[in-house]
Amino acid sequence: MTMKSPASQRNVGIVCVLCASAEKFSRRALVFAYAALPSVIVSFAALLHPTHASASFIRFASSARVLSLGGASAALADDASAVRSNPAGMVQSEGIAIACGYADIYAADGLYRAETSAVYARGVSAWGVSWEKLGLPGIYDEDVAAIAFARQISESTSVGAAVSSYRSEVKDFTAPFYKGPRAAAGFALGVLWQISDDWLAAAVADNINEPRLADGEKIAQSARLGLRYHPFAGGLVTAEHEPAGNILRCGFEVVVGGMLPMRIGVERGRPTFGFGIKAGLVSVDFALLSDNNLGQLYQAGFRMKL
Known about the structure:
mainly beta
């Protein structure tokens, strides 16, 4: 069989995924779909994050709360999702923090993303672990496991670092052109600066070593700069700029009655919405991102602090 170019593989792969539930594939289409699956997520990425479309393992919003705030997570990192969004933020957890979530990825039938993370903060130090999965059941999996450490180095500044293990695999498929599961390790650094009681700034560098998978594909580097502002009690504004591609993300949150957070945001011109329910140390969050081309992305999450 003559293999198509990577670009053609991505196009075939995305068509196959979108049609999977209809079970209308020919044998030849299935072979091309499997061959292209390591790049299927790249096809979505070309629409979601054009500057990152050259590699797998695209960074999605680390929680439902983050998604509803436009994905602006660099300076928001104040719960367990900080392990991946900005490890320096783990010191804000003050004790044990746990978070988990699930997202239905647009119109691709069966394509989902799940995440879970935990942080233990004590004094000026914090440790965290996380696991994320992006998958198409029985066909394709991407897994990212991370471990992170953070430390407050002054009254106003904290720093953090994370090591992530990336792994992807096409299930139950063998062919001369398929080299099997792909794996790599990436490194991230983050900083938080408490400018004043109401203002906080952040900077994050993801995959600074530009990890290379077994087939030579690189996982894209990225840098993000963020700000967080508390205009009044129960109110929060967060914004983030990604220089590569000049991407801007921002969001606004207001907590009604101390237990009902309402959220709205914008990510590359696409509106995001969400709300939460807070009961003591437990929060449940729901989020929606609307895309004119792909439809809606729904995400739900659970957060707890002990």
